[in-house]
Every structure is written in structure tokens, then in C-alpha cells.
Amino acid sequence: MSEEVYDTDHFFTSDNQNSENFESNLESNSEQLELIDERQADAVIEKKTPPQRNETTRTKLPIARIRNIMRMDPDVSIVNSDAVFLVTKATELFLETMAKEAYTYMSLNKRKTMAKKDLDHVINNVDCLYFLEGAMDF
User: 63 with 109, same domain?
Assistant: First the structure.
């Protein structure tokens, strides 16, 4: 049997080159993985947190319903979204004022339930709400 002898030097040089290539690929892959992890973390954070709305654009009353009520007027055909927002905010502030005043009167009488007479008292005793005089007569 004849034994073949191979030159092993080319194995060592190629292994060194392969290991250098492997290390550079490993470094670039790890950098790419870090970028992907950061992007995924940002995406998860974005999905978990609801979009923040500015306090001035948040309303408690449904804007679509207010828009429909405004469109019920035969003189109104197109309603601007800014106008709807302003009417919605004004309505909220009006109702808040009425409720606070009625609550004050109600708590003075040591009651826990608001009644029509509380609103009548508010309309008759608060100057800025006097325009509602007779509105509760039904």
C-alpha cells in the first residue's frame, strides 16, 4: 500500500482565513441582531402604549353625535370639524358647571341623589345660567 502524503500547509492557511472571515461575519451578525432587537423592542413598546392624545383634543362627549345634532338644523349643510369640537367642548363645560352647582346645593341639603329641584335652584340662583329660566318646566 502506498501512502499518500498531503501537504497540510494549505489547510492551516485556509483555516486562519476562514476563522477571520467567521469572526468578522459573527461581529456583523451580532450588530445586526442588536439593531433588530432594538427595533422589535421599540415596536413592542409602540404597540403596548396607546397613542397619546393631547388634553385639548380629548372630549368626554361623542363628537359624531354632536355633529349629527348640528346637521339636524335645516340651515346647516356642512359642519367643520373645528366647529364640532368647539361646540362639544362648550357643551362639556356647560354641563360640568351645571353639575357642580347642583352638587353644591344637593350637598348643602345632605342628600346623595340629584333631583329636578336642584337644577331649578341652580338656574334661579346662578346669574350666568339665568337664561335657562323656564327651560325645566315640563
Answer: yes
